[in-house]
Amino acid sequence: MALSLDPRGLLDPLELSPSAEEAAFARLRAARERHLGAVPDWRGLGHRRDLLSACRSRVEEIRGTTAPDTLLVLGIGGSALGTRALLDALAPLHQECGIGGGNCRVLVLDNVDPDGIAPLLAALEPAATHVAVVSKSGGTLEVRAQFLVVWRWLREALGADEARARCTFVTDPERGLLRGLAETEGFAALPVPPGVGGRYSVLTPVGLFPALMAGLDAESLLAGAADCAARLAAADERHDPAGLLALAHVLHLQAGRPIHVHFVYSQRAATLGAWFVQLWAESLGKARTEQGAAVAQAPTPLEAVGATDQHSKVQLFVEGPDDKVYLFVAVAESQDDVALPAPDWDLAPLHELAGRSLSEVLRAERIGTERALREAGRPVGVLTLDRLDAEHLGRYFLLMEETTALAGRLMGVDPYDQPGVEAGKRIANRLLAEGVPAVAAADRLTC
Ligand code: PA5
Q1: Separation of alpha carbons 215 and 93, rounded Å
Q2: What's the 201 CA to ligand 1 centre distance in angstroms?
């Protein structure tokens, strides 16, 4: 079982001469050497049995004491999107109904909009809810606000001791507000390794703890990631799918194709698009290189879902400006394929579908869109997951993280910082200290 990348058509539209191609792969070789020369901590997460064991112990403790039917995850950005992607892909129904057997449905709260939080809390039962407060830094504004609200909700219903037993912090092992609170107030806390930043953290307790609470196969998630990391490291630069993806995207960026479309042909895996968009945008959307030079072009990631977006964005993709690169993400084997039955009416448009299956319809639509784009001269790659299971998701997360880190190295930017997020945060924190202006009606155009 593996992921496979069909790279034909990704590099072709660039029409590289043999010497330009040679130079491009030499660049990739240097980027890989730099990347693998100081192996980032997220790359080894597939081997971190200690993190998995810590999560398992906490899950057993929770099941043996408070036995919740719902896990409410508080977090934002990299502390929420991986969990959402994982749960949507592997346990879509858990989010709508408890599944019993000790497993929880998982709800991820990744906003501070009162119109979302108030009705959600009104619909939940505090005694049957466990709350994961997830923040690597431990002090993100949104998570602090969410925690204040949810803690009050738990404490008023159950008292402080029972409320505390229903909380687990997932945070830095040494620093930050949550870690301090865990130490002084006795909240249970799981560690996010210091060298792993938010958007690279899905394979830490950030994603593992919710996965185990939902009864998912976190072991295979890690095994898939570990095997993928080993294979990527062993491949040479012409056979490294992460390197090829990174190189193709960066070359197209420099050739005037800054929009990078992640086109996921799977309902359950659709949230992978949102996870990827955050990873690509925060890692590569930089003004300056690591040496301080201005970055000429930064990419804009865009998510799309097949077949849904064939009736929305594909018109633009095929006939609009040639400023995009397309990575299709396909699932080879559906778990619950549905046969199309013979129609009750003698109508040719229905008869021609009978005997086919929904997975064939979806596949035909994907291949049709790929070919239409290729015929229009657009760069298209196809990444296929043999199955949508924990092992393949582990591979997928690792592959896309590696692709992102390599793209950063090729562009000369730091794929691990996010300085542009700070300015807005500083202003928001100052406004909260000094007084937040009301939404003013003056000087507005109204209708
Ligand atoms: O990728 C990142 O570093 C960010 O998106 C963070 O995940 C996000 O800002 C949340 O940060 P934290 O986990 O520290 O609360």
Answers
A1: 13
A2: 9
